[in-house]
Amino acid sequence: MIEFHLDTRSGLPPYRQIVDQVRRALRLGLLEEGDQLPTVKDVVGQLAINPNTVLKAYKELEHAGLVTPRPGVGTFVTATLRDASVAAHGPLRRELLRWFAKARRAGLDEESIEALFRDTFRASAEQDIA
Amino acid sequence: MIWFAWRQFRTQAAVVFGALAVLAVVVIVTGLQLRHWYDISGIANCAAAGDCDTVTSAFTTHYSWLQTLLGNVLIDFFPAVIGVFWGAPLIARELDTGSYRLVWTQSVTRTRWLAAKITIVGAASVAAVGLLSWMVTWWSTPFDKMANNKFDPSVFSERDIAPLGYAAFAFALGVTAGLLIRRTLPAMATTLVGYIAARVVVLIWIRPHFQAPLHATGLLQAPGSDSGLVKLPGATLAPQPGSWLVSSQILDPSGHPTNGRIEVRIGDPCVATHSCLTGYHQTITYQPASRYWPFQWYEMSLFIALAAILIGFCFWQINGRRLPTTSRILPGTRPDTPSRLEKTLDRDPAAHLDRATFTAAERPMTVRGKAGGHRQPDTRDGTDGSSR
Amino acid sequence: MTAVLDTDGLGKRYRRRWALTDCTLKIPAGRVVGLVGPNGAGKSTLLNLAVGLITPTCGRIDVLGTLPARGSAELGRVGFVAQDTPTYSGLSVADHLRMGARLNPGWDRQFAEDRIAQLGLDPAQRAGKLSGGERAQLALTVAVAKRPELLVLDEPVARLDPLARREFLQSLMEVVADQGVSVVLSSHLVADLERVCDHLIILVASRVRLTGDVDQLLATHHLLTGPRRDTDRLPADLHVVQESHTDRQSTLLVRTEAPILDPAWTVGQISLEDLVLAYMSQARAGASNNGHRRLTGVPR
Prior knowledge:
Chain A has about 130 residues and is mainly α.
């Protein structure tokens, strides 16, 4: 069972954060098919947020085909976001770490590194679309 | 609700009835002793034996401390104490502490709430005072037989069933005061003052007229005196023992009331003939002894009727509103004048921020939601205070 | 869907002061409604009217379709926790539950006892000896255990320390998730409301200034920054809530349903707290200038 946390400063609405956290958990393999998501009551009891927020998040996940509600029991995972690419995570992560080290040695500060990364990421995404 | 009314009340009840139980023991023990002494004192036959003065004065010394305690202290003050301590805080305490906001939002109407509290505490009040009155009356029987003065105003209030009426009235007065004044201590003070006032008014102006009093007139018979002034004796006309002498007057030969003194000039010939008092009459108004019990009933009923009126008023006031027939009330019209209770509850929480009504035509901004949004506000004119 | 709270021109006057003026609301069921405003705005007045402790001077109010507190059944459908969470200080926790059981036909005894146990309250403890947070939880238990359809809470967390506040809200949300009860809760602290409320009412100086679903409010309010501009020349459907100008720059808080197309403006989001503060300060400014200040909104 996963636990949610809320970042009130992130600017993202709470339901969005829950959806993202579920997706991330699915991607990282923390949630597998058949696992039960925390009940609405448990989530709101822990986070002190409106139950409608949680319901909205679970509904969106349901529409995305990732979870399904079983009335009276709970909400269960039906699909996973893990794919074969998980295997590639390890080497890719190591490459990234090497690149970060390089950037630092070149004299970039944290902000510049982040800006450069985001920029390049966006640019490459646009290229892919185009 | 009955359970809850009792739960709130049980400590006070335990204290008072516990004390009454202790008192009962004392009363029974000493009362039996008194009756024994009465039987052996010979007071019953003293009129024949001619020694009434000596035997009665000997008897009255028994348990004089308890006579005072029971007869003059407890039974006189107890109804007032009950009214002040049980009646006044009944509603006032809830309003004072704000706990009415808890209990009036449970699933009981205010009427049922009030009915339960009044029933429990009111019944206990009357019962407690009734118990005390019964004890005092039983204990004082020897003294009352001896003095035959139960109809006297002071003794009358301390015996038999009259105190029951006082208890009911004091309680009802306390509840009403608490409801209107809504602060415990001022309500208690008001109850005490009101109770005393009512008792005095009834005693002086009403009780003598429960039934039209009887009159009697007789010539004064008194020995003359050698001195210039003749001091008149007390009532030479006496109705039968046990009656209540309401008033007594001396009238001069022409029929005018005197103030109890007749002046005779020195050397007036009437002194020699012992005829200074000829032509003087005494008139008395009295209630005969046979009316003692009817008067007890009258007194009790009067105070119970007053209590009933007060309680009725409380029920009328407690709901704070007369329900409109429809829930649609035109804006700008005042449906009812708020009742007193309304005004008591309407302690404006922000009275210290004395802001004037805004004249700016601020409109509420409503945002349409997706489902079942909000009413569009009417395009009425600016809602400034003057339109009310 | 019946509205849980439906008012029309509702007003309440204390002697000479109007505590609530021309209040018109329609709150749908199934929401957690935040009633926010400065002290003295009229929040308590509105809530007391909703539970029938006081009656209106003018206007109409319907709660769950009927007059508030009309009878025993209506009283049973609304749970109330008043300001300062009144309890009977001489009675124990268990006595309060017994009171609830006797005075409410719909009382769920098992739920109440489970809740008290879960909260860790000692049933024999007198209510006067409880801490503020514990008393608030007790009052909430009493209000909730009769299974109401609407829960009305008047500044329930105002006097509590942060931990007690958080626990109270967690508890409250669990009840909402469990029982589906609608909630109207007032506070002058917006940060708490931001987490739990999905519907908002802003009450300032006896009048309702803004009301709506939180999502909708946040979606339609935008913070515009740009070069100095006179607000007279803005499009008509752009409703300016608050404006501030320097010699070079204008910052506007606007409400609009349409997208902002003017490229001169940088459009930013606004947090709920800032939104509420903007409306509150606009109301105060409007009041202090007695309406002479140009109104920053054209009524629809």
